[in-house]
Specification:
This protein folds into two domains: 123 residues, no CATH class; 134 residues, no CATH class. The protein has an eight-stranded antiparallel β-sheet. Strands 1, 2, 3, 4, 9, 10 and 19 form a seven-stranded antiparallel β-sheet that branches. A four-stranded antiparallel β-sheet has the order 5-8-7-6, with helices on one face. α3 packs antiparallel against α4. The chain is elongated and about 65 Å long. The chain is of the alpha+beta class.
Length: 275
């Protein structure tokens, strides 16, 4: 299909929900030298690692490119694993604006769009180095001094603090909800503004839920120690990226870098492409 007007391009984008939460899987070639952009989005399944998914993809070939602002030197790398905000029309004229971790545009005279390709497979795993969600059934909210004591046993002297604040005594923190506070190595409190952030703490329906974020890269060892503590809780679930780990699975992942066997199996499984 050849698209030559702004109106037809807008109609096609709208039919595909403006590729909201979609992806750019590949960018090949150079402007006016066989440039091909492959884009798509998920139409069935979930984003949880290991679960079934169905994708729709299109290949786009632009003609007479007058502007192309993408650069491979930027932090964004095309991949089905990187979710984008969407794809929009440029402000004026004919072209597309790709809203990825950084925005890039193409201006051209027309586009050739392939027939949609249907791709079936399993959601591939990814993890975050700086955010986890913890869920533990039938467990009370740990007191602030619990964390202090457990980390001390592992050789870490730490303090609670507010953003850019001084060290706080455990009796100065609200309980049970001390969301908004950080744990930081005591020696780094004056040298930093943050630490390991207790973003959210809830205890509802007999389930403790905690969201932790690493806000200071020099606190990485404290971060790892905290998660080892959590991994030893009974029946705990630790979610990182789109992978849900049991406690023992998390400890194995931290030590070896290997996902649980149920996840490792799908990493090598291929996707089925149907035209």
């Amino acid at each position: 299909m050849i698209i030559e007007s702004r109106e037809k391009l807008e109609e096609w984008l709208d039919q595909n929900n403006w590729f909201e939460d979609g992806y750019v899987s590949t960018i090949e070639g150079e402007p006016n030298i066989a440039l091909k952009i492959t884009i798509g989005y998920q139409v069935e399944g979930t984003y949880v690692a290991g679960e079934y998914q169905k994708l729709i993809e299109y290949d786009i070939h632009p003609f007479n490119v007058s502007k192309w602002t993408y650069s491979s030197s930027h932090a964004f790398s095309p991949s089905r694993e990187w979710c984008i905000e969407g794809i929009d029309l440029i402000e004026e004229g004919f072209g597309l604006k790709f809203d990825t971790p950084y925005t890039f545009e193409i201006v051209c005279s027309s586009l050739e769009v392939s027939e949609p390709k249907s791709i079936e497979g399993y959601t591939q795993p990814w993890t975050s180095d700086s955010e986890v969600f913890i869920e533990a059934p039938h467990k009370e909210v740990p007191t602030p001094d619990y964390w202090i004591d457990e980390l001390r046993k592992r050789g870490y002297s730490v303090s609670f603090r507010y953003y850019s604040g001084t060290a706080k005594g455990v009796d100065e923190l609200p309980y049970p909800d001390y969301s908004g506070y950080y744990i930081q190595s005591t020696g780094r409190v004056k040298q930093s503004q943050e630490g390991v952030f207790f973003k959210c703490i809830t205890d509802e329906n007999c389930k403790l839920r905690i969201t932790l974020e690493l806000k200071d890269e020099k606190s990485a060892e404290v971060w790892k120690a905290l998660l080892r503590i959590v991994a030893n809780w009974e029946k705990v679930k630790i979610s990182s990226g789109n992978v849900v780990f049991e406690g023992a699975e998390w400890l194995q992942f931290v030590e070896t870098g290997k996902y649980p066997e149920r996840i490792e199996k799908i990493k090598t499984s291929g996707n089925t492409v149907q035209s």
